Amino acid sequence: MAAPTRGKHYQMFASPPDHPLPQPLLIQGSNLHACLRLLPVHQATRCSPESAETVEAALKDTQAVAQQPPPHVLEQAVLFENIQVPMPGSYKLCMLQYWRPPDSKPTDNVFIMGIDEIGTLDVLQQPDAETLKHVQGLHKKDSQMH
């Protein structure tokens, strides 16, 4: 089983439907792999629900998990991209581990192996357009240097 570092606190900006802002989150740990999904859920939601339907219901108003590409697996971390939470607030950060049989089609169901709380996520109000453009410009300059 995956062993993410637990108890960490993360921050990101809100990504409302009218002004989406997909962002990455890096989670450190060991035995991390591509069959993981990051799930920001409301504080009142349990990270170890009784059924897959409960997982789906908890996610509907926090983010579109289906839009997450598989994470990039690094040596002692995993990078989740395209994380989007529409509303500012405090969330529990859960990690879901699943298994897909090798001969299955992409449309087949996956088997949920476990889901657990790994930390907290503060989603901040998105900054004004000018600040956001400046930050994105800095990111582009940094990525062009590498």
Explain what the structure shows:
- With 146 residues, the chain is α+β, with helices and mostly antiparallel strands.
- The protein has a single domain, classed as Immunoglobulin-like, CATH 2.60.40.
- The protein has two helices and eight strands.
- The strands form two sheets. The chain has a four-stranded antiparallel beta sheet with strand order 1-3-6-5, with no helix packed on it.
- β5 (72-73) and β6 form a beta hairpin.
- The termini are far apart.
- This is Rhoptry neck protein RON6.
- It comes from Toxoplasma gondii COUG.
Strand order of the largest sheet: 1-3-6-5
Query: Total helix count?
Result: 2
Q: What is the share of helical residues?
A: 10-25%
Round the mean pLDDT to the nearest integer and report it. Answer: 82
| Helix-strand category | alpha+beta
What is the CATH class designation?
A: Mainly Beta
The number of strands is 8
- Strand content bin: 35-45%
By CATH, the architecture is named Sandwich
Total domains: 1
Largest sheet, in brief, is: 4 strands, antiparallel
Following the backbone from N to C, one meets helices and strands in this order, namely EEEEHEEEEH
Cα radius of gyration in angstroms: 16 Å
Protein name: Rhoptry neck protein RON6
Organism: Toxoplasma gondii COUG
Structure in a nutshell:
By secondary structure, the chain is an alpha+beta fold. The chain has 2 helices and 8 strands.
For this entry, give a set of tags.
Rhoptry neck protein RON6, 39% strand, alpha+beta, 146 residues
